[in-house]
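Entry, Tuesday afternoon. Goal for today is a structural model of the target with fe (ii) ion bound, before we commit to ordering more compound. Inputs were pasted exactly as handed over by J.K., no edits. I checked the ligand SMILES twice against the vendor sheet because last time a stereocentre got dropped in transcription.
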Amino acid sequence: MTREATVEEMERRLTLSKVALGEVPPDTLITHMTLFNSHTGEFIKDQSLWIKDGLIAYIGKDSYPGKGDQTLVIDAEGMTVLPGLIDGHTHMVSNRYGIEEFVKHVIPTGVTTVITELMETATISGRDGIEFPVKGFEKQPIRFYYTIPPVCGLTPAEEVMAPSNDLLIPFLRDPQCVGIGEIYWGNIFLDGGQGERVRELVNIALGMGKVVEGHTAGASERKLQAYTDFGISSCHEPITEEEVWERLRLGYWVMIREGSIRKELPGVAGIFKERIDYRRLILTTDGVDPGGFLEEGYLDASLKTGLKMGIPPALAYQMVTINVAEHFRLDHLIGSLSPGKKADLVIIPSPSEYSPRLVMCDGRVIFRDGKSLVEPKKVFFPESMFRTVNVNDSDIPSLPTRGKVRAMELVNRLVTKESIVDLENDEEMKDVISILTKDRLRNGEGFIGFLKGFGLERGAYGTTMNWDSPALIVVGCDQLSMRTVMGRLRENGGGNVYAIGEEVVAEFPAPVCGLISLRPMEKVRSELKRIEDSLRENGVRWENPILTVDTLSTAAIPHFRITHRGYVRLRDRKILGVDL
Ligand SMILES: [Fe+2]
């Protein structure tokens, strides 16, 4: 903080204390409410809250502090006031809609702070992929914090755009940066440059007082503890009660995920029946896709699910306010309604009915009586983040037609395994199609293999939205359709395309990094729905097949993955071809 800024802040705090003493009138006065104290978990009746310059000056019984002519009085008689909700783990740039669309739709939900990952744009655009989304978060009507993406790829080839640690240090100095984003546990142990870069980044961040976000899916006992030894302090991957217990006992901040990727609350419901300390439990979305957002909601929907399941309201609200703030060391600013904190709040009818009537962020009313009162700020992305599908030819390498070959098989909609199929055995070849990957940033270098179990019976489907990879993936039944898909992805600057022969049947253009649409969320939802419907009509049986293909490239999900150089066996990160 500069000297000037420090002086300004000192004056602001001095004025705030004068408001508490009744010497200076507040900007806003909220009266007659039940106040949720997130520190103690109490709902305290007949409270008042005085706000000045975006900060809370006073909470308590006194309702008349010497009101000024300009003071806005909000009578919250019979209502309950909560701190603004905090989503502690989401992916702003992987759910296909832009930042403005997110802000517009999130305001009515009562979420006033979002802590987001940025790995997707960084994988494609390196430093620009961090800098420009971060600039886009500035001066929005809600508050954003971010984590630095460690860019954890399957192999070094997926990490070509990863900024050097020296380039990342200035971001770590930014007060809006809370630490390092999720590190897949397997990556921290990798030999050579890949693991070394990440381990160094972790140590730099910890040394600067920042947190390091974990990703411990599938790790337990000594492996989990070996990973934790690096200084990792959170995980949003537990899917069973046992996994939650194990991580809580190791000192983790455990994020229960309830969003589009997975909905874990029902599966871990048993933990809420115990008499334990829940202050390290967090409820988060891990991202919500356009369909989920428009039909069910965002973190508000997760919260309502929790309340419906019988989680006591005080605990449910702590899980989306103070607990999150404490984990990210932001509790001196947000997460509670107490003196000196940011005036971020939500007014709801009662503790058991989460239905925002008024939302305030930074002391400004941004939503009231069903209407948003603010507009999102326009976000700018530079030329370098457009036209990122540089696959100049539609060459498709040939595949063998006889003998036994290696294939990637879907065990369920996300998990895969290595499998061997006999090309001359019709029974074994049922539901086997081609899968093509190409490096879309540089030279179009590619690999073609076999995919079993996706269900597609005609045409081809392609995506540039592969997790943790700068490649594009096309899965298809014939070469003509696959070429059409590749050509169209190039024309659109990325996204998703489904084609049969030369005809494009359904598409979703995503020109920013091949990841983000410039269209309204409703339009994005209808484009994606048309793709899903087309895939379903043509044989695919998995729920959310778009996610199935997006995730074939990530080290986050077991067991057998793919890059533009070949299949990758996660166990030893070995690159394997089709031939045995
Ligand atoms: Fe995540």
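The first helix runs from residue 3 to 20.
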